[in-house]
Design brief:
Catalytic activity: 2 Fe(III)-[cytochrome b5] + NADH = 2 Fe(II)-[cytochrome b5] + NAD(+) + H(+)
Cofactor: FAD
Distance between the termini: 34 Å
CATH architecture of the largest domain: 3-Layer(aba) Sandwich
CATH superfamily of the largest domain: Nucleotide-binding domain of ferredoxin-NADP reductase (FNR) module
Subcellular location: Mitochondrion
Strand order of the largest sheet: 8-7-10-5-6-9
Main location: mitochondrion
Protein name: NADH-cytochrome b5 reductase
Number of strands: 16
């Protein structure tokens, strides 16, 4: 109920830690690599977790994720976030962090039939958790459910207690406090998730003075994900400015109308500068309009679109 009320009211933070009555039992040593690095299996009645225990001097770090192995995480709860999006909370040992850096994502997979040899085929998709990377025992995913989306339909079919296979983290942009004086963000739909990860990291750090400007595009006002949370963050943090635009505005809509334009970018983003970074994440059509999508090899590729026309250079723009 706590989870559902927060999602309905503001989706500001799911807070807290998952409850677990199971005790951790350490198993066999699996590997030693990269200096002194040991892997231990932890078992519970329903799940098996692989935790990484890395020593650097006297520093020890536990992580529920493994970049080289698929790990099962149990669905604790899910709620409707919008008419076509859902919030999912997955749980694991409450004494352990997920092991996610800002900004990075995870890879998920689900069975999708069999190949000619009778082996299981999988559909694989990346997602960016929106929960605090420092949180222990849980992570949250915000997923738009598409009618023909194989992975999103799989997530929508999950019930509490079901598991999903996860690998990671997959590092995207390595964010560090005050790396730029001003960060501009352009997001479309669920492209808000990596932006929110960075926004949260900036706002919770009193020593990070980065100015953030977000342009957030959606189809309609009802499609704006986490708007209440974003509005609260913007109202309480003067270094965060947000401008919304929608393709199909309602009669009482007071924000922008239509696709993100040059004029919106000029008014809502920091100008081209060595101390400016523009982050872009959204559907392919928006990406091509704003900056071009990534190259086929998933490198950043060439910069085109309105950002190129406005004088930004490739080293000023990062595409998620």
């Amino acid at each position: 109920m706590f989870f559902k009320k927060l999602a309905e009211a503001a989706a500001i933070s799911f807070g807290g830690q998952t409850k677990s009555g199971s005790r951790i039992r350490f198993g066999a040593l699996a590997a030693i690599s990269g200096g002194i690095s040991s892997y231990y299996f932890l078992s519970s009645p329903n799940l098996i977790y692989l935790l990484s225990f890395n020593f650097i001097g006297y520093f020890a770090f536990f992580s529920a994720l493994n970049p080289d192995k698929w790990i099962e995480f149990k669905l604790q709860d899910k709620v409707q976030a919008s008419h076509n999006s859902q919030l999912f909370r997955f749980s694991f040992d409450p004494n352990v962090k997920l092991g996610l850096d800002v900004a990075s994502c995870i890879i998920t997979r689900a069975p999708n039939g069999q190949n000619a040899e009778g082996k299981t085929k999988y559909v694989i998709r990346p997602y960016t958790p929106i929960s605090d990377p420092e949180a222990k025992g849980y992570f949250d995913l915000l997923i738009k459910v598409y009618p023909e989306g194989k992975m999103s339909q799989h997530f929508a079919s999950l019930k509490p207690g079901d598991v999903v296979e996860v690998k990671g983290p997959i590092e995207k942009l390595r964010y560090s406090p005050n790396m730029k004086k001003h960060i501009g963000m352009i997001a479309g739909g669920t492209g808000i998730t990596p932006m929110l990860q960075i926004i949260d990291a900036i706002l919770k750090n009193p020593d990070d003075h980065t100015q953030v400007s977000l342009l957030y595009a959606n189809v309609s006002p009802d499609d704006i994900l986490l708007k209440k949370k974003l509005d609260v963050l913007s109202a309480s943090n003067p270094n965060l400015k947000i401008f919304y635009t929608v393709d199909n505005p309602t009669k009482d809509w007071l924000g922008g109308k239509g696709y993100i334009s040059k004029d919106m970018a000029v008014k809502g983003l920091p100008g081209p500068s060595d101390d400016t970074l523009i982050l872009v994440c959204g559907p392919p059509g928006m990406m091509n309009h704003i900056s071009s999508d990534k190259a086929k090899d998933r490198s950043q590729g060439e910069l085109t679109g309105i950002l190129k026309e406005l004088g930004y250079t490739e080293d000023m723009v990062y595409k998620f």
